[in-house]
Each structure stands twice: as structure tokens, then as C-alpha cells.
Amino acid sequence: MNVQEMLDQIEALQISVMMRESTWLFPTVETVHVLALVLVIGTIARVDLRLLSIMNAKDSVSQVMAGLLPWTWGGFIVAAISGTLMFVSHPTKYLETVPFQIKLVLLALAGLNMLVFHFVALKHVGEWDTGPTPRGAKVAAGTSLFLWLSIVVVGRWIGFV
Amino acid sequence: MQVVKGQGGALPSALVRLQEGTMLEQFSTWLEATSLSATLQEVAWAIPVLQIIHILGIAVVFSSICLVSAHLAGFNRQANAAELLRSNLRLFWPTILVLLLSGGLLVVSEPGRDLLNPMFLIKMATLTGGVLFVAVAARIVERSGYDGNAYKLNRGARTTIAILLVAIFTAIIICGRWIAYFDAGTN
After folding, report:
1. pLDDT: which is higher, B185 or B107
2. Distance from CA of A13 to the nearest CA of B (A)
3. DSSP A34-45
4. A157, B67: Cβ pair inside 8 Å?
5. A144, A153, B41, B177: which could join A31 in a potential S-S bond, CB 3.0 to 4.6 Å?
6. So what's the ipTM on this one?
7. Tens-digit pLDDT profile for chain A (161 aa)?
């Protein structure tokens, strides 16, 4: 089965048809996506700004992350589900859209950046939890801020295509 | 027939609504003819940039509302109550100004889309209520004081404030998103 056949099959799913034909379903799912996305951005930016010592610099990194990351993950899961539902409404059209392609790449990069941060910089967080953030963690935080800001930009761009 | 006080004396409520609607339409037409509106429409990147600033502002405000509400309701206990409230209020008020400015410019760029749209009017009414409620709720919590890391205000009142905060600001975002799905001047 080639990619186009797979996309056609997705497009023929009942949920895809419902997303296309219902007058209220797509706007509702899109609203949920926006709510989840603003929660992800609002919380992950606080973690990044703490790592960059711009915000809540006197709080320990592990405490800040414990308070914020459950929101980030919760928001991300809801955003991923609602985003997938929006995608299946017109999978071929979305995949042919440049900003959507860029958004997928940026999401993958954000995920990769987070993995590197967790398994490299955060491994020794006990050594710098309340002190100055090491350069590697600052680079990861700056990269994360840039990537998530870019995700918002291309996400808005999709709406104009 | 319900009668309400309008300009120049008692008028039937339907007539007042009609008058207000006409005024809003006239204001929208005037706003659309301003040079600022024309500039915002002509500059291709103006509206997308304003929308991005607006959505980032919403991210700051909504995450603040969720974090403070969760703490008020008894979650994330390790955070200091007074510090959490103060630091989020310090972010909240300037961001509301950014939202009013970016949102105001978006209205100027497409007045008919917003000013004649029932969703926009509901959003503005809810936003006004929400902002006032934040001011009142913050005062209630701060005046009741803190006991070390915790609040002195009883849990029932705190949970009620938390639920109302999240509900009001969720409603504002829902209305904001649904402006695009309501045709201007209908319903």
C-alpha cells in the first residue's frame, strides 16, 4: 500500500467523514486544540525561562518542573489527539501544505530536544538544581523556546493556506 | 412589553437594541474607513503577527489561571501560596494589556467581522467579568492571608474561585475561537 492509498483510507474513515461533514465537530475539536496548545506553550515557556534564569530563578529547577510538566504533558496529549482528529479530516490536503510539513518537523525537533535534555543535562540536575544552569541546559531551553514559538507561528500559518 | 430607559426617555427595549445595533454598525463602518484599518489590511503580515502575539498572550494568561486555580484547589502543594499568586498576577496584568492592544488592533483591521459578531460581544462581556473576577478573587485571597505555605481562606471558597476562574477563561477562549465560525451580522 502506498502513501496515497493509506491517506485515502484515512480520509474514508467514519471519524474523518464526521470531521468534514459536521458543522460543529471541527470547530469544537479546533477549540480544544487551541486550549491545549496555549497550556503547553504557557507551561513549557516557564520551564525554559527558569532554565535560562529569567523567571523564578530562586526556585529549584526540579521543583519548577514538578509543578509545570504535568500540565505540559496533559496539554500535549490533548493537543496531539485533537490535532490528529483535525488532520484526518483532510489528510492529503494537510500533508501537501508547506506550513503543516514544517510544523511536523518542528514538533519532531522539539521532542528530540526534550529527550536530549532529559537524558543528558537533567541527569545531573542534583549538581545545579538551585545554582547556575549549565550551558547545555540553557541551550536546550533556548532551543525549546524557539521551537515552540515557531510551532505557534506555523500553526497560525496553516490557517491562512 | 419591557420598557428600558434609553436616550431621551423611556423606549421599548427592542427599539433600544435596534438603535444600539445601528450605532455599532455605524461605528464599524467608520472604523473600517480609518487609515489605520486600511494599513492593517494592506500590510500582509500585520494580521498574522497580531494573531500570534494574541495567542502567546492567551498562553501566558491561561496557564497562569490554571496554575493558580490548581493550587487554590489543593494541588501542587509544594509551591508557596503567596509567591505563586503574586508572581502570576505580575504576569497577568501586563499580559492583559498586551491582549487588549493586539485584540484591539485586530478589531480595527476587520471591524465588521468582530463588532457585528455575537460571539465577539459575548467574549467581551465574559472578558470584562473575568478580569473583574480576577481582581476581586485576588483581593479576597490576599486579604484572608497565608499560613506558611498554605492559604487561610477555607477550601470551599478556594475551590469555588478556582472552578470559576478556569470556567470563565475557558469560555473566553471558546468564544474567541468561534468568532471565525459566526457570520458577521447574523444571529
Report:
1. B107
2. 25
3. HHHHHHHHHHHH
4. no
5. B177
6. 0.92
7. 789 999 999 999 999 999 999 999 999 999 999 999 999 999 999 999 999 999 988 889 999 999 999 999 999 999 999 999 999 999 999 999 999 999 999 999 999 999 999 998 888 888 889 888 999 999 999 999 999 999 999 999 998 87
What cell numbers appear for A139 in the block?
Answer: 541551550
Q: Which residues pair with B3 in a beta bridge?
A: B12
Tell me which residue in B55, B79, B170 faces A156 most closely, judged by beta carbons. Answer: B55
Per-residue pLDDT at B43: 96
Contact between chains at B59 and A38 (C-beta distance less than 8 A): yes
Angstrom distance (rounded) from CA A40 to CA B18: 43
Residue of B nearest to A32 (CA): B174
φ, ψ of residue B3 to 5 degrees: the values are -115, 130
Pairing of strands B150-151, B9-12: unpaired
Whether A71 sits inside 8 A of B58 (CB atoms) is no
Q: Looking at beta carbons, which residues of chain A come within 8 Å of B58?
A: 38
Q: Measuring CA to CA, how many Å separate B101 from each of A22, B10, B95, B108?
A: 35, 36, 10, 11
Rounded to two decimals, the pTM is: 0.89
Given a contact cutoff of 8 angstroms between Cβ atoms, the answer to whether A19 and A81 are in contact is no
Relative to beta strand B3-6, strand B146-147 is unpaired
**Contact predicate A11/A90, CB 8 Å:** yes
